[in-house]
Amino acid sequence: MAETTDYIPMLQVAIEKAFGCRAEHNRTVHIEENFQNAVVWIGDVEEFLLTGHATARHAYAWGHAMKPTGKEVRVVTILGLPPVDSPRNAVRASIIADAKNPRH
Protein backbone atom coordinates (compact mmCIF):
# COMPACT_ATOMS: atom_id res chain seq x y z
CA MET A 1 0.00 0.00 0.00
CA ALA A 2 1.30 3.44 -0.86
CA GLU A 3 2.19 5.20 2.34
CA THR A 4 1.17 8.76 3.10
CA THR A 5 2.08 10.99 6.00
CA ASP A 6 -1.13 9.79 7.69
CA TYR A 7 -0.37 6.08 7.28
CA ILE A 8 1.59 5.40 10.52
CA PRO A 9 -0.73 7.58 12.66
CA MET A 10 -3.75 5.77 11.15
CA LEU A 11 -2.27 2.40 12.15
CA GLN A 12 -1.34 3.74 15.60
CA VAL A 13 -4.91 4.86 16.25
CA ALA A 14 -6.25 1.50 15.04
CA ILE A 15 -3.97 -0.38 17.44
CA GLU A 16 -4.82 1.88 20.38
CA LYS A 17 -8.56 1.46 19.75
CA ALA A 18 -8.33 -2.30 19.18
CA PHE A 19 -6.18 -3.09 22.19
CA GLY A 20 -6.98 -0.28 24.65
CA CYS A 21 -3.42 0.90 25.25
CA ARG A 22 -0.82 3.35 23.99
CA ALA A 23 1.21 2.47 20.92
CA GLU A 24 4.44 3.97 19.63
CA HIS A 25 5.84 3.17 16.18
CA ASN A 26 9.09 1.22 16.51
CA ARG A 27 10.10 0.09 13.03
CA THR A 28 9.06 -0.99 9.55
CA VAL A 29 9.90 -4.52 8.41
CA HIS A 30 9.59 -5.66 4.80
CA ILE A 31 8.16 -9.18 4.59
CA GLU A 32 7.90 -11.58 1.67
CA GLU A 33 6.04 -14.74 2.66
CA ASN A 34 6.29 -17.75 0.36
CA PHE A 35 4.40 -21.01 0.29
CA GLN A 36 5.17 -23.88 -2.09
CA ASN A 37 7.48 -21.69 -4.19
CA ALA A 38 4.89 -18.93 -4.62
CA VAL A 39 4.72 -15.50 -3.04
CA VAL A 40 1.54 -15.38 -0.93
CA TRP A 41 2.13 -12.02 0.76
CA ILE A 42 4.53 -9.15 0.25
CA GLY A 43 4.59 -5.81 2.00
CA ASP A 44 5.71 -3.74 4.95
CA VAL A 45 4.67 -4.53 8.50
CA GLU A 46 4.74 -1.74 11.08
CA GLU A 47 5.84 -2.79 14.55
CA PHE A 48 4.57 -0.80 17.54
CA LEU A 49 5.69 -0.83 21.16
CA LEU A 50 2.75 -1.01 23.57
CA THR A 51 2.38 0.74 26.91
CA GLY A 52 -0.43 -0.17 29.27
CA HIS A 53 -1.44 -3.53 27.82
CA ALA A 54 -1.77 -6.26 30.43
CA THR A 55 0.26 -8.90 28.60
CA ALA A 56 1.60 -7.75 25.22
CA ARG A 57 4.57 -5.47 24.57
CA HIS A 58 4.24 -5.33 20.77
CA ALA A 59 1.59 -5.06 18.10
CA TYR A 60 1.88 -5.27 14.32
CA ALA A 61 -0.17 -3.50 11.68
CA TRP A 62 -0.46 -2.81 7.98
CA GLY A 63 -3.02 -1.59 5.50
CA HIS A 64 -4.33 -3.05 2.24
CA ALA A 65 -6.16 -1.14 -0.46
CA MET A 66 -9.59 -2.72 -0.89
CA LYS A 67 -10.92 -3.78 -4.27
CA PRO A 68 -12.56 -2.77 -6.57
CA THR A 69 -11.89 0.96 -6.14
CA GLY A 70 -8.65 0.74 -4.17
CA LYS A 71 -9.70 3.83 -2.23
CA GLU A 72 -10.84 2.10 0.95
CA VAL A 73 -8.21 0.68 3.28
CA ARG A 74 -8.44 -2.51 5.29
CA VAL A 75 -6.28 -2.13 8.38
CA VAL A 76 -4.90 -5.31 9.93
CA THR A 77 -3.81 -5.23 13.58
CA ILE A 78 -2.20 -8.19 15.30
CA LEU A 79 -1.35 -8.32 18.98
CA GLY A 80 2.14 -9.59 19.77
CA LEU A 81 1.28 -12.61 21.91
CA PRO A 82 2.60 -16.16 21.34
CA PRO A 83 2.87 -17.54 18.76
CA VAL A 84 3.02 -14.04 17.22
CA ASP A 85 6.45 -12.80 18.28
CA SER A 86 7.64 -11.09 15.09
CA PRO A 87 6.36 -9.20 12.05
CA ARG A 88 6.67 -12.36 9.94
CA ASN A 89 4.58 -14.39 12.40
CA ALA A 90 1.98 -11.60 12.43
CA VAL A 91 1.67 -11.97 8.65
CA ARG A 92 1.40 -15.74 8.97
CA ALA A 93 -1.33 -15.41 11.62
CA SER A 94 -3.24 -13.04 9.34
CA ILE A 95 -2.96 -15.43 6.38
CA ILE A 96 -4.28 -18.30 8.50
CA ALA A 97 -7.15 -16.15 9.87
CA ASP A 98 -8.10 -15.04 6.34
CA ALA A 99 -8.06 -18.66 5.13
CA LYS A 100 -10.44 -19.63 7.93
CA ASN A 101 -12.66 -16.54 7.50
CA PRO A 102 -12.42 -15.25 3.93
CA ARG A 103 -13.64 -11.67 3.42
CA HIS A 104 -15.92 -10.99 0.49
Topology:
Layout lengths: L6 H13 L2 E14 L2 E14 L6 E8 L7 E7 L7 H14 L4
Antiparallel strand pairs: 1-2, 2-3, 3-4
What ranges have pLDDT less than 50 throughout 5 or more consecutive residues? none
Question: In what range is the share of β-strand residues?
Answer: 35-45%
Please outline the major beta sheet: 4 strands, antiparallel
Structural class: alpha+beta
Mean pLDDT: 90
- End-to-end C-alpha gap: 19 Å
Compute the number of structural domains.
Answer: 1
Tally of alpha and pi helices: 2
- Oligomer state equals single chain
Number of strands: 4
The coarse overall form would be globular
Using only CA atoms, what is the Rg? 14 Å
Write the element-wise H/E pattern from the N-terminal end onward.
Answer: HEEEEH
Indicate the percent of residues in helices: 25-40%
> Which strands sit side by side, in order, in the main sheet?
1-2-3-4
Summarize the structure.
The protein is of the alpha+beta class and 104 residues long.
Can you describe this structure?
This protein has 104 residues and is α+β, with helices and mostly antiparallel strands. It has one domain. The chain is 26% helix and 41% strand. The chain has two helices and four strands; from the N terminus they run αββββα. The protein has helices at residues 7-19, 87-100; strands at 22-35, 38-51, 58-65, 73-79. The protein has a four-stranded antiparallel β-sheet. A hairpin with a 6-residue loop joins β2 and β3. The longest helix has 14 residues, at 87-100. The relative contact order is 0.19.
